[in-house]
Design goal:
It is built from two helices and five strands. By secondary structure, it is α+β, with helices and mostly antiparallel strands. Strand 1 and strand 2 form a beta hairpin. This is N-acetyltransferase domain-containing protein.
């Protein structure tokens, strides 16, 4: 898997794997302190390789570094956070 890139302008973390782009979209609230993860998208052709997990973890590590809280609106991100209690303190 290539390195995960953070596109601040578009509000996403993305990676290209075998010619397919996977991404996690987020939005910051008006105060700039709460990251809402809205979508995690991994094309079927590259599914099952832990890509969504890697994108989610990258987003949460970034949020932690920035001092942001996280609202996992995306069902995948919510489930991932529930399986990784080390990120509980970020939950908005």
């Amino acid at each position: 898997m290539n390195a995960i890139l953070h596109d601040v302008i578009r509000g996403c973390f993305q990676v290209e794997v075998d010619g397919h782009r996977a991404w996690l979209d987020y939005a910051l609230d008006a105060s700039g302190t709460v990251m809402t993860i809205t979508h995690t998208v991994v094309p079927q052709a590259i599914g099952g390789r832990g890509i969504a997990a890697a994108l989610t973890q990258a987003a949460l590590v970034h949020a932690r570094e920035q001092g942001w809280a996280v609202h996992p609106q995306c069902s995948y991100a919510d489930a991932w956070m529930r399986r990784h209690p080390e990120f509980d303190a970020l939950r908005a």
